[in-house]
Structures are given as structure tokens and as C-alpha cells.
Amino acid sequence: MPTNPHRLPDALRAAVDAAKEKVAALHAELPRNELVVWTAGNVSERVAGTDGPGLFVIKPSGVSYDDLDAASMVVCDLDGAKVDDGTPAHLQPSSDTAAHAYVYRHMPEIGGVVHTHSTYATAWAARSEPIPCVLTMMADEFGGDIPVGPFALIGDDSIGRGIVETLSTTRSKAVLMAQHGPFTVGKDARAAVKAAVMCEEVARTVHVARQLGDPARIDQEHIDSLYERYQNVYGQHGPETADADKPAQKPASTEERT
Ligand SMILES: O=C(CO)[C@@H](O)[C@H](O)COP(=O)(O)O
Predict the structure, then answer these.
(1) Of 73, 96, 158, which is best to mutate to test ligand 1, by the most ligand atoms within 8 angstroms of its C-beta?
(2) 62 close to ligand 1 (CB < 6 Angstrom)
(3) Domains in the chain: ranges and CATH
(4) Phi-psi region of 85 (alpha: psi -120 to 50; beta: other; left: phi over 0)
């Protein structure tokens, strides 16, 4: 049953509108960081403070990045069904909506999901090869290798299932879906966009390094130390300068999760 926007409590209406503004603005980061071409890629964010079954905001499918604004963002429930909140009826949500919805249903700590076809990360995905943790930046952001998820067709739960299954075995916020491209997650959409930018950067750097030889993986104890510092010490921590990229909960160590 579509949701009538006029029946939304004021707080939920405000939260939906805030998410639409934020997700629209974050979509501009994808072309700005050269992570997408044409209409490829998408960003979503869970609507904060939603009682009941939950909602998220995602871009409409196949619309030029130049034409995306808050008014064109689509609101969906956690089954991926479009919610009628006043967004024009002809705007259908992203073709990856079912994957985003699956992640939100199965990873309650996650508040943002991003998908791109960024060149270097997608090249690793094309080979179904994990990116080895040979850079401190990888240890900082991803806590280890960036894993590969299974090949899956677009349109149903298959991609989402592959993302969740793969991310459940790692600290990484990025997964390279085989022969498709990277999906990243974060506590909110901004953190997931950051992970997408970092994923492409390390994919490019490790690729370049491999043209020169075989880079060595960082020792596990050093990876753990770097990850701990970056996640818990790096950046600003005052109430007015809190880093929005920090995870809500400290993820378990690799040893605890495997
Ligand atoms: O992976 C795919 C298609 O292969 C999609 O991610 C498109 O690249 C973007 O689709 P929309 O979000 O515009 O539907």
C-alpha cells in the first residue's frame, strides 16, 4: 500500500526530506571523483529515526547525474518497493534497488550503500580477484583485503545476498561483485561514498604497483594496528567535529568474525 505523504508524521517527513537532499548531493560525488560514466552507479541512505518497517532513499534509474536533485530521489521500503511520497510517479528506482534493500534488511548497522563501475575496481572484479592489502590506506579503511563476491544477475535478491554473505566474512566495507563492480557500505551514505572513492584509489595503486613487481601483503598484526588507529584515533573527535565516516559500532576483528 503506497504511503500518503500527508499521513507521514512530521518527524518522518523531515527525515525523508533530509535524506533526499543528502543522497541527491552525494550522487554528484560519483562523477566528481570519476567513479562513474553516463548514468552508471547509485547511492542510497536509510532514512534515520524511522519507526516501523524502515525506508531508504535512492536515485531514479537511468537519469543523468546532471538532472538529479532532491525532488527526483525515490523513497523505497526495505523490500525495495517504491513508496509514494510525492516523487513523480514515472520515476522508477535504480535497477540495483533490490540489492540495496537486501543489505538494509540484513545489515542493521549499515545506513548507506553505494555502487559504481569505477574503472580499476571493476577491472579487479572482471578478473574475480581480491585486492590484496599491500597499502596502509587499505589497512586503515578496509582492515584487510577487498574481497570478491559471487557473480549475480541484476534485478532480484542475488546481488544483495552476495554482498551480505561476502561482507559477513571480513572487516571490509567494499566488495567487488564478480564481473560487475564494487559495492560499498557505511554507517551512512557519505561513509559509503568515501569507501567507494578509497576502493577505486587502492585498486588503481595496487594495479600500478603490480606492473613493477609483486607487492608484499602487510603483516596481519600491522594491518590490525593500522585499522584500530584509523577507526578509533584518526581525525577529529569533538562534538562539533565528529567524523561522519566513523562506524557506529567498532567492527569485530578478523579473528572474531572468521
Ligand atoms: O550495474 C548496473 C547495470 O549493469 C547499474 O548499476 C547501472 O549502472 C545503474 O543503474 P541505475 O541505478 O541507473 O538503474
Answers:
(1) 96
(2) yes
(3) 5-234 (3.40.225.10)
(4) alpha
- Which position has the grid cell 567494499? 174
Amino acid at residue number 235 = G
pLDDT at residue 247 greater than cutoff 90: no
CA of 117 to the centre of ligand 1 (A): 9
Answer yes or no: is the ipTM higher than 0.85: yes
Residue linked to cell 541512505: 45
Cell numbers representing residue 187 in the block: 554507517
Strand segments (E) across 155-194 = 174-177, 181-186
Q: What is the SS3 assignment for 2-16?
A: CCCHHHCCHHHHHHH
d(CA 256, CA 258): 6
Q: What is the largest CA-CA distance in the chain?
A: 61
Residue with cell 559477513: 168
Supply φ then ψ for residue 94, to 5 degrees: -45, 150
Tell me the sheet residues that pair with 60: 93
Instruction: Order the strands of the 181-186 sheet from edge to edge.
Output: 82-83, 74-77, 55-58, 42-46, 112-115, 181-186, 174-177, 148-149
Tens-place pLDDT, residues 147-177: 999 999 998 999 999 999 999 999 999 999 9
Best probe residue, ligand 1, of 95, 153, 176 (max atoms within 8 Å of C-beta): 95
For ligand 1, say whether the CB of 91 is within 6 Å of any of its atoms.
no
